[in-house]
Amino acid sequence: MHAITRHARIRQMTFGTGSAQEVRDRLEADVLPIYLDSPGYVSYSIVWADVSTLITIRVFDDLDTLEAANAAASAASAQIVADFAVAPSEPSEGEVILFDSI
Length: 102
Fold this sequence. Notes:
Elements: E1 6-14, H1 20-36, E2 41-50, E3 53-60, H2 63-72, H3 74-83, E4 92-96
Antiparallel strand pairs: 1-3, 1-4, 2-3
């Protein structure tokens, strides 16, 4: 078995307008396709934390491919932040030390 290094970024999105479903739908329609087309893409998840908070988790092969994908998605992300009055938040990120999926 060999080690595979991946990088993840986790961000909490607390929004002031709209519903969790509306924000989720926009992320799926506007941001996810950009990530899917980006080199190094591994996964993208959205977690419903509460009625006005979602948590996004994106995993890429490494920090460089994650940063490139985020740059590619920056205009779409900024529009979602503006449209849903998303509160500023600092992401958490780091090397993935265990990853498994079906």
